[in-house]
Write a structure and sequence with these properties.
The protein is of the alpha+beta class. It is 42% helix and 22% strand.
Length: 212
């Protein structure tokens, strides 16, 4: 099956959000922020959340890549361009009404607290931030996540910039290490398995992330 990775078109953003929702349906950190509820369609609920997060960041300050197979979005990655610190908090505030509808007030406050913890752990050096990446269940294990990373990191390397992410699972960290990321410190303040910060330096720099 041929997989094509490219920048998402505007009409593909909803499908990208749905793929991310499917991929994160059982994510432990997201379950802390928005616990599953009996009888709900978890992917539909989280799809609204990811769509709001994508809309929150202006196009000039972000990049959404999609993996396409048979004219269908089967993978997505959402990156934030190098920004001053607290950029994520500003993006969060822009979508407060929709986020409250999805998360509720308590969930919104939990999300804000988690976001503050993650912002404090981010490196001082300018960097691209991988906010979310996910692959449809139908194509997992076929290298789609790696193709999405390669596509984005080629862009990052051409600009001689660093890249940063947090990862909640050992399985995903193995993938990121294969693409040049190194483990940093676990983030504190989470009741589930703590996400681990991961840093990939620019091609001509050696600075690493600040301690979490």
């Amino acid at each position: 099956m041929e997989i094509i990775v490219r920048a998402a078109a505007e009409h593909e953003l909803h499908a990208a959000a749905t793929v991310l929702a499917e991929a994160f349906a059982e994510d432990p950190v997201l379950a802390e922020i928005r616990p599953p509820r009996s009888g709900e369609h978890r992917v539909a609920v989280l799809g609204r959340l990811f769509a709001a997060l994508i809309r929150a960041v202006p196009e000039r300050s972000s990049a959404v890549d999609v993996a396409i197979a048979r004219d269908r979005v089967v993978g997505a990655a959402f990156w934030q361009a190098p920004l001053p610190h607290r950029g994520g908090l500003r993006a969060f505030v822009r979508q407060v009404p929709e986020l409250v509808r999805v998360l509720g007030i308590a969930g919104g406050l939990r999300a804000l607290a988690h976001l503050r913890r993650m912002e404090r752990a981010r490196p001082a050096a300018p960097h691209w931030y991988l906010a979310e990446i996910g692959v449809s269940e139908a194509v997992r294990g076929q290298g789609v996540g790696g193709l999405l990373l390669e596509h984005a990191l080629d862009r990052v390397d051409r600009r001689r910039q660093g890249a940063y992410l947090e990862s909640s699972t050992p399985h995903n960290r193995r993938l990121y290490r294969r693409h040049g990321f190194a483990d940093g410190a676990p983030l504190t303040g989470f009741t589930s398995a703590a996400p681990v910060s991961m840093w990939r330096p620019a091609v001509d720099q050696t600075v690493g992330p600040r301690p979490a």
